[in-house]
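hey
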């Protein structure tokens, strides 16, 4: 299977070659309409490439045999894995015969997750109760992970995170620090700590994997999500840089879903919101095949429209669209639920 980064490089090289083939004649044909024609042709090629990638990812790509690829009976470690998207990763990986290590703040939720998963699948589940916002040094992280030294961990899922919908002028320093600890520091820390360990276990055809759950809000600034959007942007850029440095023996994926119906979004339900089951299913299908996924074709197309269409038409219209994200009834309800949780959890 072609490595995801290599595949992306080949696609970029192909597109660059086609673009150069079109641009070079411009040096010899300089009329205004010739230039317009070639610019339009380049845009069309870009659109065709986008359409091909979308169809390929969501309709033509088959999920790899992950247990065979990373080792049947090995462990997947999931941060924030007792609820929502993290719990769904645990459920689906358990069905693929991965043993699990679940880290979460809520001990009651951990106990329930372990009970439910072991009833449904004959695997081992280890849980660690931890408040990741209180880990202030690499030594703290190492102490947390000491019980796992003998575990053959093949898959790391950086899922833990927190949404932020408070207005920027209400965000206290401790609140900002908490969001950054969860959405930024934990991603870098777990990835750094596990990288050499994941690499050391790869030999022959054996591989390892890292998935970081980011967000579609990482692609553009979103009003009412100022801190969440910014920190998820960091997570996405961090993973993009990591993918250029990592060993080809380690598969890496950044999942950038839109709204997912979990407690974080007030179990929002509308036409653009998906369940955690579909979110996880599609991201696991992309693992080993692609380096980034928006999880559903709807989100991918919407992001393309936001980043290209609306922006090019009128930046004011673009800003109005972003502002509308906070004024729809569904979003207002979700924001109210999220803001209430934030004020309770992160109050100074």
């Amino acid at each position: 299977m072609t490595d995801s980064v290599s595949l992306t490089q080949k696609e970029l090289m192909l597109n660059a070659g086609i673009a150069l083939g079109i641009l070079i004649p411009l040096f010899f044909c300089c009329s205004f309409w010739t230039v317009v024609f070639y610019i339009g042709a380049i845009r069309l090629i870009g659109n065709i490439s986008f359409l091909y990638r979308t169809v390929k990812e969501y309709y033509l790509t088959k999920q790899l045999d992950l247990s065979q690829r990373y080792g049947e009976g090995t462990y997947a470690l999931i941060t924030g894995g007792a609820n929502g998207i993290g719990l769904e990763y645990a459920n689906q990986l358990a069905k693929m015969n991965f043993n699990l290590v679940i880290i979460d703040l809520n001990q009651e939720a951990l106990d329930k997750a372990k009970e439910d998963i072991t009833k449904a699948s004959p695997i081992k589940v280890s849980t660690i109760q931890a408040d990741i916002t209180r880990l202030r040094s690499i030594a703290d992280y190492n102490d947390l992970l000491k019980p796992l030294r003998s575990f053959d961990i093949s898959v790391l899922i950086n899922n833990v995170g927190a949404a932020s919908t408070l207005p920027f002028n209400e965000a206290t320093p401790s609140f900002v620090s908490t969001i950054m600890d969860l959405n930024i520091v934990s991603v870098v820390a777990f990835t750094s700590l596990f990288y050499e360990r994941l690499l050391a276990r790869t030999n022959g055809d054996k591989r390892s994997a890292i998935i970081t759950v980011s967000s579609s809000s990482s692609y553009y600034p979103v009003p009412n999500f100022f801190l969440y959007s910014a920190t998820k942007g960091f997570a996405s850029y961090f993973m993009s840089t990591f993918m250029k440095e990592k060993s080809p023996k380690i598969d890496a994926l950044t999942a950038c879903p839109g709204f997912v119906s979990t407690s974080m979004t007030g179990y929002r339900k509308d036409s653009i919101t998906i369940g955690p089951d579909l979110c996880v299913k599609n991201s696991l299908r992309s693992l080993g095949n692609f380096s980034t996924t928006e999880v559903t074709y709807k989100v991918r197309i919407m992001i393309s429209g936001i980043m290209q269409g609306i922006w090019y038409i009128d930046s004011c219209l673009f800003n109005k669209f972003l502002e509308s994200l906070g004024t729809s009834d569904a979003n207002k309800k979700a924001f109210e639920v999220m803001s209430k949780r934030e004020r309770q959890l992160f109050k100074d």
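The beta strands are 75-79, 99-104, 125-129, 153-158, 208-213, 250-255, 292-293. Residues 32-60 form the longest helix (29 residues).
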